[in-house]
Amino acid sequence: MRTRGYGAVVPAVPALRTSRLALMALTTDDLTAILRGERDRSAFTWPEWWPDDADRHHVEVWHERSTRLSDQDGWGPRALVESVAPSMAGHAGFHLPPRPLVEALSDPSFHGHATPAAGGVVELGYTIFPAARHRGYAAEAVDALVNWAFATGEASTVLATVAEANEASHAVLRRVGGFRVIGTCRDDTATVEVVYRRDGSS
């Protein structure tokens, strides 16, 4: 966050806005507040139960990356904040700033087709909290992120990995369109994940 005139606080990275959501880049300060439960330090609220055991590690990783890459917050996680109220419905964003395809697909468990990319490559992820599911928020957020990534001119290709059994997440990418399966990999628990790719011309 930074201050502009009369002490007004504005985000360092402008939010991406859809018809129902504001995708707000999570800065180091935001992530510190989330880890400490300091809700009065944030422009939005989040569920009392979050971050849970599954997500706390992710938030800690995001915090470390934001501290190290503070000028790249736009390429990190974003809070999906509902327009009707400043409450967080989930999170979505990119794992790292644009990088060469050979780095993005460097996971030794990857098996598939690594057709060269014209420019930088990013990988996105998304999670919708249980109370906000079945409203189309994930597809809305993914569509906005993909369009923004290509519009920057820094990324030509977007990847996404989805657990083989996670039909809801597969459906999101089909709904957004333009993604194709290029192979599989395994996560840290050896779960098989399907690797999707979308290029800027898609």
Helix/strand structural class: alpha+beta
Strand share of the residues? 25-35%
Sheet with most strands: strand arrangement: 3-4-5-6-8-9-11-10-7
Q: CA-to-CA gap between the ends? A: 34 Å
- Sum up the overall morphology in one term: globular
Give the domain tally.
Answer: 1
CATH homologous superfamily assignment? Gcn5-related N-acetyltransferase (GNAT)
Average of pLDDT:
92
Portion of residues in helices?
25-40%
The profile of the biggest β sheet is: 9 strands, mixed
Give the ordered list of helices and strands: EEEEHHEEHEEHEHEE
- Contiguous helical run count: 5
CATH topology: Aminopeptidase
Low-confidence stretches: 1-11
The second-level CATH architecture is 3-Layer(aba) Sandwich
Secondary structure: number of strands? 11
CATH class: Alpha Beta
Radius of gyration: 17 Å
